Amino acid sequence: MNARGTGGSAAARTKATSRAHSTGAGASQSAMREHNLGLVLEQIVDATEPVSRADLAVGTGLTRATVSALVDLLVSARMVHELEPVARRTAGRPAVPLVPARGTIVGIGLEANVDYLGACAIDLAGNVIAEEIVEDDFRHSSPDEVLPLLGGLGSRVVDAATAHGARVAGACLALPGIVDRVNGPLRLAPNLGWADDDLSALRTVAPFDTIGVRVANEANLAAVAEIRALHAARPSFLYVSGEVGIGGALVDGGVVFKGDHGWSGELGHVTVDPNGPDCTCGAEGCLETYAGKDSLMAAAGLARDLPVEALIEAARLGDTRARDALARGGRALGIALSSFMNLTDINEVVLGGIYSPLTDWLVDHVHRELHKRVLTAPWVDMQVKASVSGTRAAMSGAALSVLRLVVANPGDWGALEPGAWSELDGIPAPTAADHAGAGPRPAGLGPAGQEEDA
Ligand SMILES: [Zn+2]
Fold first, then answer.
1. How many angstroms does the Cα of residue 283 sit away from the middle of ligand 1?
2. I need a labelling partner for 100 at 20 to 30 A (CA). Which of 50, 122, 252, 295 fits?
3. How far apart are the CA of 378 and the centre of ligand 1, in A?
């Protein structure tokens, strides 16, 4: 049984809530059952290998009989799939390995970023069922034009997922900006040129007019995907999302730190030099003006719409401007990160987005600044490494954050009412072959970033 703490949610849930039986109230019994149902599903989804009912009883502190009854509900709700039984080494009935169901329920991840739009559908097992990407320049675009286009991508992804028999749990949109979880969905996305937009244009496109869309900051969502991909117990790190802008997400013990408004992690606007270049935010010398993609490309004498691979190739060929641009960007990044480490005592940094392929070119410059500026440098292991969650991590994290809501409350999705799934009777359930090879897998949904209804 793997008990990765991908989510502080796993640790935060109380084990063995059977003690609540002393209340005796029907409502409490029902709430307890629903809580335990989520607890069992979470353990199955977060495990890196198939688990048995016995494993779940140990992991949750619930009785074998209770676990079995809950698993049966999850199986009939097509959230969990039973693999072929395997013989035990000891006497007794063969164990039935349990895995998250593939292709039965999906979260929709949407992303609007400066140089691409994307939509994907991911199932409980972590598989991408469908994906659509459009690459273009969306700097200073209009949300009223971009969001219907994004909605069209999302709509096609939903159609593809439902054609496979999947049920859509909801949608989440990743944005490179400040998402207000108090007064409105989007305060500012400076590189898109969006400010105080209500994003309602997205909700004019079916099916988002009915299922709605939650909204969250792209770096926070990318960190959700990174937590899942790391397979580490309750990791703490700063996720740095390098694009035209630079986002950050502070992960503390497997949980994304949100701040008072959900606005934490604006690393790109940390001041590197108050006498530096003008920034899109109105200040001068922000990290973005040295290490954002546009700034790196301009300093290297390359067109800003070229892929970052052009910068890598120029540096590899020994181009002085390209290497100087990377040295300047890496130094600025190191200065900003040293402030972060001095403040937080979190000494691991994950470089995502364009920084992932650039890590080898940046890391020495970053480390030089860290060793100079971080007070505790002699005693801590400061790590700066490339992200393992791949490209489009924010879009994946958006879909995963939707699925996490399902895992937290499977009863809301029909797990306590098997009849609610009768609408799917005409659709064949995934077969054992669909789940063949469902051994170790990159499961686990991790904690969500803050999300608000659009
Ligand atoms: Zn700025």
1. 5
2. 252
3. 31
